[in-house]
UniProtKB/TrEMBL annotation:
Residues 145-203 form the CTLH domain. SMART domains: CRA, CTLH. It comes from Lactuca saligna. The keyword RNA-binding does not apply. Keywords: Metal-binding, Zinc, Zinc-finger. GO terms for cellular component: cytoplasm; GID complex; nucleus. The keyword Signal does not apply. This is RING-type domain-containing protein. One of its GO terms (biological process) is proteasome-mediated ubiquitin-dependent protein catabolic process. Signal peptide: none annotated. Residues 322-371 form the RING-type domain.
Length: 384
């Protein structure tokens, strides 16, 4: 079964749901109209006619068979909704619990990761509740720094650029020169356009004071900004109106987040998000492997038997693949450098063990690349 079959079935169920919703709405409107009409009749009728009005309304509602129609609509939709998971199950694995293993989590570490997420997202009230319920201490320095970050982000949302510009100025020495220059220019560009729209007469002085010092790295962009002097009151209709779009403000905010997180030594992507994203990418491989292995074998597995390629986005350290055995190094089979003063070629630990000559008094190894002979004791682990 191909993906088109799934999409077609999904579209069919979605259309059926829309039709059911439309019929529900139509039925409700009809009942509502009858009740409104009855209320109007009651207000205009004398006491003797009230019973007849109520009787007439009851007969009308009974004729609509409201409950029967709702049950029928639910039944039809339920059949389609029941069939869709069955069709979906033929295409993808719906029981992802098969990939689960009984792994003991270190609660303090998991709690810190959750706190990191809450701070990162600015959910400080939720973080307070979490620390109380989980009996977890706040990470004070991280809370303080992320609180500052969100103060500046809130200012950016309000089109106030000064806090972000002040932060760049204060932290310039610890920021990457190129990246901080780009961030400052993007902030100044928005500031210039905002100023030009409000007080065009100050535009030239602003360019001289703030944009000219940044022109060495942004010459073309600065030249493009001078075009706005021809449209001081019609920036939205100028050829470069997109420079003031909401997307540009959002991009500057994201750029600031990256720079801010780098300045405090944390990733701009919080660990929990990275973990969930990596897990989602690796889930198909995990499920396929779990289905091929026995339940006991899967539960007892110490090392994943196949390569898990998640892309460079999820590579956070150097990886070494032994040129002899073609296996990637890990904690059980680390990368080792041969000798201290000899060849300095690198193999993994298991390869060195396999090549070691044990017949001599001192265990020696001959490098498979430069033929240097050395004692195994002279090999040193590399920490990547």
């Amino acid at each position: 079964m191909d993906l088109k079959t799934i999409i077609d079935e999904f579209d069919r169920v979605a259309k059926k749901q829309e039709l059911s919703t439309s019929k529900y709405h139509q039925l409700i409107v009809m009942v509502e109209d009858e009740i409104k009409q009855a209320l109007a009749d009651l207000q205009s009728a004398n006491d003797i006619d009230h019973k007849s009005v109520i009787k007439h309304l009851t007969e009308k509602l009974d004729a609509y068979r409201v409950q029967e129609q709702i049950k029928m609509l639910k039944k039809d939709l339920k059949v389609d909704l029941k069939n869709y998971p069955e069709i979906l199950g033929e295409f993808v694995e719906t029981d992802i619990s098969k990939a689960s293993r009984n792994v003991e989590f270190e609660s303090p570490i998991v709690n810190k990761i959750i706190l990191n997420l809450l701070y990162h997202e600015g959910l400080f009230d939720v973080a307070n509740t979490f620390t109380n319920e989980a009996q977890q201490r706040h990470i004070n320095w991280l809370r303080r720094d992320f609180s500052k970050m969100h103060e500046i982000l809130d200012a950016l949302k309000a089109k106030n650029l000064e806090p972000a510009l002040n932060w760049v100025s204060v932290n310039r020495r610890i920021l990457d020169p190129k990246e901080s220059n780009n961030l400052e220019f993007n902030l100044r560009r928005l500031q210039f356009l905002k100023l030009l729209k409000e007080t065009p007469s100050e535009g030239i002085n602003f360019v001289k004071t703030y944009l000219s010092p940044l022109a060495s790295n942004h010459r073309n962009e600065v030249l493009n900004l001078t075009v706005f002097f021809f449209w001081p009151e019609k920036i939205e209709t100028s050829p470069y109106s997109d420079l003031m779009s909401p997307e540009k403000w959002a991009a500057v905010s994201q750029e600031f987040i990256v720079q801010f997180c780098g300045s405090i030594g944390v990733s701009f992507r919080n660990p929990l998000t990275v973990t969930v994203d990596a897990g989602a990418l690796g889930l198909p491989t995990l499920l396929n492997t779990a289905n091929l292995m026995g339940k006991d074998e899967w539960a007892a597995m110490r090392k994943f038997p196949v390569a898990m390629e998640l892309g460079k986005e999820f590579q956070f350290h150097s990886a070494f693949v032994c040129p002899v055995c073609k296996e990637q190094s890990d904690e059980d089979n680390p990368a080792m450098m041969l000798g201290m003063d000899e060849c300095h070629h690198v193999l993994c630990s298991q390869t060195i063990s396999a090549l070691t000559k044990r017949k001599t008094r001192f265990h020696t190894i001959q490098c498979p690349y430069c033929s240097c002979v050395m004692s195994v004791n002279m090999c040193r682990r590399l920490y990547l």
